[in-house]
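Cross-check.
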Amino acid sequence: MLNLSETGLLDLGDQRLEYRWIAPRRANAPTLVLLHEGLGCVGLWGDFPDRLAAATGLAVFLYSRAGYGASTSVSLPRPLNYMDGEAKSVLPRVLEAIGFERGLLIGHSDGASIAAIYAGSIEDHRIAGLVLIAMLSLRKQNA
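Predicted model, tokenized:
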């Protein structure tokens, strides 16, 4: 992993992506890469990344896709296949830019779809696994 500051903008050439980096407690620890949901960004993960890093001792890297948070803006509406582009074009460049060596992709909603598309499209032995999260609101129905 490159020596990243805790927060900043990751320059991919055609876009700059807001990121947050939580360093591991131990050397050579795997990295957990968080992929946000459709209306999310770095800030909307709240304290979850900090709690995840504290509980695991692992590095945590999260970023806002273009059009979200403080990242480069995009033209709207997005194409219907934008998640394919994120998975096959942007995510590989993000992982390369940060010097990703090994770890997990943890995706929430749209981020889960992007992680699954990436894993199904690109052979990357650095990825040890995926954690795919979808939130469902369960309310007690009054009978």
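The chain has a mean pLDDT of 93. Helices lie at 48-56, 82-97, 110-121. Passed to J.P. for a second look.
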